[in-house]
Amino acid sequence: MKKAFFHLILIALAVSSCATARYYGGFTPETAGQDMVLLGPVSNMYYLDKDNHEFFSDTLSGVSETLIAGLVDEMGVPVSDRIELDDKQKEEATAFMRYLVGHDAKNLDKFPIPGMLDEILEAQGSRYGLLLVAQGMTRDRKGYRKEAVKGALIGVATAILTLGTVVMYSTPDMYASQVFAVVLDSETDQVVFFNTTKPQETNPLHSEPVREQLSKLLKDYLK
Which of 20, 184, 193, 203 could be 129's S-S partner, Cβ–Cβ 3.0 to 4.6 Å? Predict the structure, then answer.
């Protein structure tokens, strides 16, 4: 299920990338500084082994979540507290983010926020919740080198056979990383902010590229 979900969300992103855009629902930096908590974050990390077999990794997902939470604190994102989510809450959060990605930004305020997350905010006594969801992939370097050499040989052979009229060369991605951000308003049960980075060929477990992604997502709300 995890592997299938990863492929589904990538397809959804490819289809909807032109339609979905950054959305502001009257959520200003001043509003963010009043009463906002961090939900999660939630990470879905995958590992591609030397034989190109894809696996969902709880360990890598946990590393990613810890990294993002630390960067949120370091960068001065205006959250007053962090609320960790259990597995069911993470699944609901990821499903909701995938749902938002599939719609135009102008319609995002029409979708009620997930019940589980709404209950968390109300129990916390906080109106706003910043939900960050990351997805990414790392892979075995030996497998990457093997596929890269294979791709180069195929490219050379194709060029020779076609007298240079066709050149085929394809190297599989070593890394993939993308981060989504949404702010939930428990008072109105609406989305008041949404943004996402484009999928990038960068290590989702390295601090600097993730910091850069978060900076782009939340630049208007950083202290």
Answer: 184
Q: What is the pLDDT of residues 73-100, one digit of tens each?
A: 999 999 999 999 999 999 999 999 988 9
Tokens of 196: 């996402």
- The distance from CA 157 to its chain's CA centroid, rounded to whole angstroms, is 38
Q: Residue 8 corresponds to which amino acid? A: L
How long, in residues, is the chain? 223
Nearest-10 crossing angle of helices 58-75, 207-218: 60
For residue 160 the two structure tokens come to: 């020779």
Contact 32, 184 (CB under 8 A): no
Q: Are 213 and 200 in contact (CB under 8 A)?
A: yes
DSSP annotation of 23 reads E
Strands (E) located in 33-81: 36-48, 54-56
Question: For the segment 66-75, what is each residue's pLDDT rounded down to a tens digit?
Answer: 999 999 999 9
Please report where in the chains the tokens 């709404």 appear, as a residue.
118
Prior bond of 41 cis (ω within 30°): yes
Q: Which of 200, 64, 45, 8 is nearest to 137 (CA)?
A: 45
Which residues does 154 contact at the CB level (< 8 Å), separation at least 6?
Answer: 168, 169, 170
β partners of residue 176: 137
| The token pair that represents 156 in the structure block | 């050379």
Please calculate the CA angle 86-91-97 and round it to the nearest 5 degrees: 125
CA 53, CA 2: separation in Å to the nearest integer?
13
Which secondary structure element, helix H or strand E, spans residue 82, and what is its range?
Answer: strand 82-83
- Calculate the CA 11 to chain-centre distance: 14
